[in-house]
Amino acid sequence: MRRSFFFVFVGIGGAAILLWLGFWQMQRLEWKLGVIADIDARIEAAPIPLPDVLDPENDAYLPVEVRGVVEPEYLRVLVSQKEIGAGYRIISAMDMGGRRVLLDRGFMLVDQTEVPVHEGSETVRGNLQWPQEVDGFTPEPDVAKNIWFARDVAAMAAALNTEETFVVSKQTSFDDGPISPLPVDTTAIPNDHLSYAITWFSLAAIWIAMTLAFTLRARRAPKQTS
Q1: Quick one: which of 12, 33, 141, 191 has the most CB atoms within 10 Å?
Q2: Are 160 and 83 members of one domain?
Q3: What is the pTM of this model?
Q4: What is the pLDDT of residues 140-188, one digit of tens each?
């Protein structure tokens, strides 16, 4: 009897904890979906002129319209596109007359070497972003080959003599082929809460089944007699 009570006590306690973790992950899922929906709405909003003062936290994803000269110097960031292959993000400076910003023009395949040059003032619609892609494992840029391995806003701004403002192109007034824009979206935002919830609920079910099995075994066990 005491063994059965012990198994039931442990089983209920363990199942309660696992179920709580599963429901907590469902709450986190609802919160994350709300955050992503807010960001999507922000990305798709009507663009505004580039503000004079920017905050990397509050102005992330802000849709803007900038006009200026896309300078011929550029940096190449090695990336890979699913079902397309390896290529480069092309980062140029845009001189807006009075301020210079970084412009992420988009993706170009590695075997395409001719980056188009544009003369005169052009208009770009896109979104502000301050990508956090650099960590302790990121290789240093190969300056001789003009190959970068992450979008390092501060280092790129220094290399192209711009402010640390990063505009990711979405639509341009000019043909920039063979470069294809890679607009900002929310696909890279991690959202694994549903899989975590399923894992916790599955563990709770297994825990309950094991508790029932041990309890029944304990009750069926023959009593010892002296």
Answers
A1: 141
A2: yes
A3: 0.80
A4: 999 999 999 999 999 999 999 999 999 999 999 999 989 999 999 888 8
